[in-house]
Amino acid sequence: MTVGLLSAVVFTPLVGALVIGFAPARWARILALVTSLIAWVISLWVAVGFSAGVQGFQLVEKLDWIPIFGIQYKLGIDGLSLALIVLTTTLSWISILASFAPIQTRIKEYMISFLILEVGMLGVFLALDTFLFYIFWEVVLVPMYLIIGIWGGANRIYATIKFVLYTLVGSLLMLVAILATAFAYQGAHGGAWAGAFDFEALKAYAGTTGFADGLQLLGFAAFFLAFAIKVPMFPFHTWLPDAHVEAPTAGSVILAGVLLKLGGYGFIRFSLSLYPDASHTYAPLIIVLSLIAIIYGAIVAMVQPDLKKLVAYSSVSHMGFVTLGIFVFQEQAMDGAILQMVNHGLITGALFLLVGVIYERTHDRTIAKMGGLAALTPVYAATLGFFVFASAGLPGLSGFIGEFLTLIGSFVANPWVAAVAAVVMILGAVYLLWMFQRVVLGEPSAFLLGLKHHLSDMTATEILTLAPLGALVVVFGLFPGILLNLVSGPAKVALAAVGQGTAITVDPIWVAAGLGFVVAVIAWRLLALRPRRPTDDGGSAVQTVEGAA
Amino acid sequence: MTLHQMLVFLIIALPLTGFLVTALVGRRLGLNAFWIPVAPVVGSWLVAMYVIATFHDVLPAGTDGIAVTLWQWIPAGTFTVDFGLFVDNLTAVLLVVVTTVGMLVHVYSIGYMRHDPGYWRFFVYLNLFMVSMLLLVLADSWLVLFLAWELVGLSSYLLIGFWYRKRTAAEASKKAFITNRVGDVGFALGIMAIWVNTGTLNIRDSIELLVGPASMGATGSLAFAGGIPVWVIALLLFAGAVGKSAQFPLHVWLPDAMEGPTPVSALIHAATMVNAGVYLVARANPIFASAPEAMAFVAAIGIFTAILAASIALTQTDIKRVLAYSTLSQLGYMFAALGVGAFTAAIFHLMAQGFTKGLLFLASGSVIHAVHDEQDMRKMGGLRKKLPHTYRTMLIGAIAMSGIPPLAAFFSKDEILGESFKLGFQWVWAIGILVAVMTAFYMFRLIGLTFWGKSRVDPAVEPKIHESPRTMTVPLWLLAIPSVLLGIALTWPGPPLGPLFGMEGEGLLGGYLKPIFEHGQEILGRREEAFQLAGIDGMLLAISIAVALAGMLAAWRLFGVEIGPIRGASRPALVASLTKRVPFLYRASANNWWFDDINNLVFVVVGGRIANALAWFDRNVVDGVVNGIGALTRRSGGGLARVQTGRVQNYALGIALGLIAMAGSYFVILGR
């Protein structure tokens, strides 16, 4: 077949990148913006033509690529990937627009990297061939490595190497699992390679005969590592705060807005469908890790002295809802997990943009130096307030829907799981309002007053980057049906593949052991050390005393 | 949509329009910024009154309210939530309070906030609050109720922290929101439990499925074998009520909320939002009635909060804090009433307290305005002559609050105490009587310190004291009317009101709310008996009046009195010697029983240490392992450096071999 709509979405940014490569450097910005807008329009076009009621994939494009191994170039879209590609194209043009002022060196290279990054992300969400999926997965890594490593902050080399090595460990294991799964499929089909990398064929096989238990357990574990690092799940999350702190604003937006969703998407699309039995085996572990991420991320966020780190840890907490929602195997929870992915992309993307706005003016992100922005920059203060409450899960805004659906689905599986996760309603309010108070309320700080006219309110461009996100947060909060109609089909399909969950039982011994461990760590810290005086990194003790409720 | 459904929608849509328009253009309007937000609230009041007066005529047979479904909010498979509104008699009663006090507070704010640079912003928040509060009482679904519940929390946060430059205001607003969230976790879990048990979140349907004749038993329905016991649901919902209505142990936010402008204290923290918890329990009365243990718990929390708060109010020196603790205490009465099964009495007291406390707060605002933002009663005194309207209306409020007949709060409070006694909760009655003494005492201590005796006002301010403008005094007098008449109007069993509304013999309110509480009282097997003067009721009534008078006289003796011919000087020496005689109790009262210190220790100090410990764990243990692996690899890499030939082919070979080895190992492991 000829070039289809989906290929057009994926490769428009690549064409743009090539054009920028040969165009004068002063055109790079505008060309990148135009390219990303074209990709956005095409993705909306896809959305308009999409029929939500149809089961399975639409607009499927198939080309033989490496026929000897049955590897194909195969793209297709369902409601889940549609929601995520529109999120990607939206955040991409917003990020490129938001990079206009902050990025002043090597603009051409930056824009090319960004567009190639977009190619990779879109490809991951659309690929229906496991090998192609892997290729796109790795394509994402390189430009992100460059974006952090070249245009990042002072400690960027450490952060970017950590980011790349960490994610590479996961993805290489995933490649092994992809190959092993293909070998198993080929072996079961009399040595014929056709379909060994075709997601739909693999899924059909997994749903009928099913892969052997051993392969399922190992394959799931390898995929799990790749996806868990990307999400990131506790305890694989420590690359995230470092990467966020060093990344330029737009890099953080894409990192939080889209890259973390690659993991959640992978779980729903591949792990559940290919390894249903193993999914059930691992589910209790993943649920416990998700609960830890939700609570632990929020608590650690409370004492972060740096705005970006605070938002990064809040991502760990929010993304815990995604993995929780997926692995309780319950309809509302699965819907909620997918909505949470989209809404987290919008809200956290906006929060990173807002941190970038203040960083542009102050070249600082230390919460302790801020204060009184409401008096100095009222528009900024109001916008930050809006997204803070969106992030705290205020009903009526989109963040609430995903969390609540996940909670109610978890409640069906086990009320205690929901009860633990719901505590984040309090913890989220604590760290967000603490941050909001310290940054926006009170008398203007000496540091901010010292900036004088450099501290201007938001520019028209900045408002233009945030307004669409704000509008979507309200629209999806009041009319979540727009998204739910898209994703409920794929959610049901994924659940049908893995089988609805039964009630979760968690062994009390494990709960006791886990709690005991936490208590031991805390007790040891409380007893072993007097509270240290503030230092640049660990200086949160004093802030907490003043800040927490 | 029928006309009435449109009108019900309009009740919310009007202030919503005011909110949006003012938020967009308010900044440019300067001192004219009040028209756009105030007019819709007046309109909303008119529409609400019309709806309340006429909706019984248009009800379809077999229903007891008007339901409007605006759109399907959440369609998630079997979980669907309609964005629906519903007006029945209980909502109507709440609408009267919310729209009336809301409208008067809006008008009052035109004058009160005139000199504030954030004039328009204040009205934006106030409008947002009206939208949220109206949605709260109109919601037809638990989740819509929860949405409104959180939105009133948001508007309360914005209004408490209105003067955001003040650190105390910013702290207070955060404390209010977070403390409320603690209760909201319970509420949210309660909503989930309701859905798991019944498969719907429509308030009426779910209650019927939970407890009503449609369900098989008391603990669950047919389709959804969730099996969460009803008493658990009741307690989870009550957790939400405890937060919003500031009951022990989540009461700590309300006194601090007085950092907000005074109209806010009157509207949100006295007359409307804090009643939301009472409304919630009253709305869910059949659920609570099916769980008598939960009911007893509600009564205990309520009456404990009542006496705790009253004991603190005795010694506060900040005029608004006295009123805040008084509000807590009166809310405690309401929960006590709900807990013993006297639902009507609770709603009655909600109305009476709402109007009276709204009046008292607005009057205190007028005082604070007059003495140039001074709230300390030790720096007031002798304001009677200078603020005649404020004084008279506040005195009416104080008499009403103290429980002197025939003012409104007397009837409602007496009904609560009498019902508690008759329904077998003598301990509630006994504590309630103690609270009544204290109430009369602190109300007249407040009046004495503020209006009577010699002036202690700052001499620089003294000559500038003047009565507030009409936009402020007229709302005071308008609120004084219900504070005086509401009690008689709603309880008088005989002509003319009873027969007029076809409810002879049981009082207007009792008859009006009967369809709401019938179900709960049936399950409970308790009824609120009609009042009989010549029986036990008469005796209880006499005791009530006696203790109120006793409290009043005690205050007069200590803090002076100047009502017409009744004169007495204050006796500071006597006060001092009294406080010395009970040093512990005095300190406890003055320090709010150290609740703030305890909370600070537990949540801020210990909680902060825990958070820091976990952050340390994250940096050094979780990330330490990652970095440790990295370092280990580097070190061992030193030994393997010879492999680094720099030739790409060698690396490619290495990668290929590695992949083959890994894939091969799978086959070995899998044995195929």
Write structural notes for this entry.
The complex is a heterodimer of chains A (549) and B (672). Chain A is mostly helical. Chain A is 74% helix and 3% strand. Chain A has helices spanning 5-22, 28-49, 79-98, 107-126, 130-151, 156-188, 199-208, 213-230, 239-246, 249-274, 276-302, 307-327, 331-362, 373-376, 378-391, 398-413, 415-422, 424-440, 446-449, 460-478, 481-498, 508-528, 541-547; strands at 58-66, 71-77. A two-stranded antiparallel sheet of chain A has the order 1-2. In chain A, α2 packs antiparallel against α3 and α3 (79-98) packs across α21 (481-498). Chain A is globular and about 75 Å long. The termini of chain A are far apart. The model of chain A is unreliable at 530-549 (pLDDT under 50). Chain B is mostly helical. Helix content of chain B is 71%, strand content 4%. Chain B contains 26 helices and 4 strands. Chain B has helices at residues 3-29, 35-54, 89-112, 119-138, 142-160, 167-198, 203-211, 230-244, 253-256, 262-271, 276-283, 285-289, 292-313, 319-340, 343-370, 388-402, 408-422, 426-451, 470-491, 497-500, 508-524, 536-559, 572-581, 583-590, 595-639, 648-670, and strands spanning 66-76, 79-87, 560-563, 566-570. Chain B has a two-stranded antiparallel ribbon with strand order 1-2. In chain B, strands 3-4 form a two-stranded antiparallel ribbon. In chain B, a hairpin with a 2-residue loop joins β1 (66-76) and β2 (79-87). In chain B, α3 (89-112) packs antiparallel against α4 (119-138) and α17 (408-422) crosses α22. The radius of gyration of chain B is 29 Å and the shape is globular. The model of chain B is unreliable at 214-225 (pLDDT under 50). Chains A and B meet through α6, α8, α11, α13 and α16 of A and β1, α5, α6, α25 and α26 of B.
